[in-house]
Description:
Layout: E1 4-7, E2 10-13, E3 16-17, H1 18-25, E4 29-33, H2 34-47, E5 53-58, H3 65-73, E6 77-80, H4 83-91, E7 99-101, H5 108-116, E8 121-124, H6 127-139, E9 144-151, E10 173-174, H7 175-187, E11 191-197, H8 208-226, E12 233-235, H9 252-261, E13 269-272, H10 276-279, E14 283-294, E15 299-303, H11 312-316, E16 322-324, E17 333-338, E18 347-354, E19 361-364, E20 385-390, E21 393-398, H12 403-406
Helix pairs in contact: 2-9, 5-6, 7-8
Amino acid sequence: MNPLSLQHNHLHLESADLVAIASTYSTPCYVYSHAALTQAFQDFDKALRGRNHLICYAMKANPNLAILNLFARLGAGFDIVSGGELQRVLAAGGDPGKVVFSGVGKTVEEIRLALDNGILCFNVESEAELLRLNEIAGTMNRIAPISLRVNPDVDANTHPYISTGLKGNKFGVAHEDALRLYRLAASLPHLKIKGIDCHIGSQLTETHPFADALDRVLTLVDALEADGIVLEHLDLGGGLGIRYQDETPPLIADYIDTLLAKLQGRTHTILLEPGRALVGNAGLLLTRVEYLKHGAEKNFAIVDAAMNDLMRPALYDAYHDIVPVVPRDDPKDIYEIVGPVCESGDFLGHARLLGLQQDDLLAILSAGAYGMSMSSNYNSRARAAEVMVNGRESFLIRERESTTDLFSLEHTLP
């Protein structure tokens, strides 16, 4: 669903006026749609109806407690990659028994925390991790539930920084090593094999990479079961893309139909780990124009948001649509939309045709995923507030940081 609409010449998210949101909470400010988050989750859930399944939100996309709590209420599990993310799930009222723990560098402390809280499964990414898990579980008199994250060597056709399924990537175990490692896991006394995991990357806009990866996984599943290793679940990862500019990702239902067509006759529980597809287009970043600067070669709209607030353009050269909250009939110019951070890479949009005046309010769209979660305090900038709208109502779900917050944990020398 598209939660944005123009009402009374003001852009609204659901029925909430973004001019009023900016006035109440100031800028820069992240704003999320309760309805869009709910609808996206329900689209996944409905597409898997009739099949034992668990939708594990990949919370690295946006770990705000209110968003986690909303998904937990809808029945979600969670895909985590750190002990800190597990603690957020617990604080948000999530069920640790619906948590899968991915990531290549799980520490002893993180493993202990996960075992203490009874998570659903560790997605193991190396032989060394397998051995560490068995050892720690033994010292705790526990059995660690595990799956192996198998790297199928499938090209996801996405940005190289968010591709995870090729031989050159750090993630998972090689497909050719998986059978040996499953046999090793079956021999270790403090591990219980639960399933298999595969995740090939993020922002995928075609179904065939998912299908190709699943083919390789199912070949391995058949080999395992012939070897007497029976799996309870198939974790098919996430990575479904969204539309930022002119991408045409498949509908959630079509993506899942592609997977289910290959799973005919199999009774495994299906786990999925969507992140961006749940939250990306449910959020936007509000920012205000501080100055207009007209140059000989370029015009700049200098706004109060910056690369520390939204890193994706600087990091990936990613595109986000930028629209005025109150459209004007003024003559339009081509602007670079830039922030105040002391870096030439501090941009939010290149060459945007806009009619602008100083103090205008802009909405940077499709910012619900990897916006606030990747933000920083570079240049000693306080991080933005976060707001959830539900119909006409708005709720502050993260307070804006103060400057004193930034150095509250620091100390001068005696």
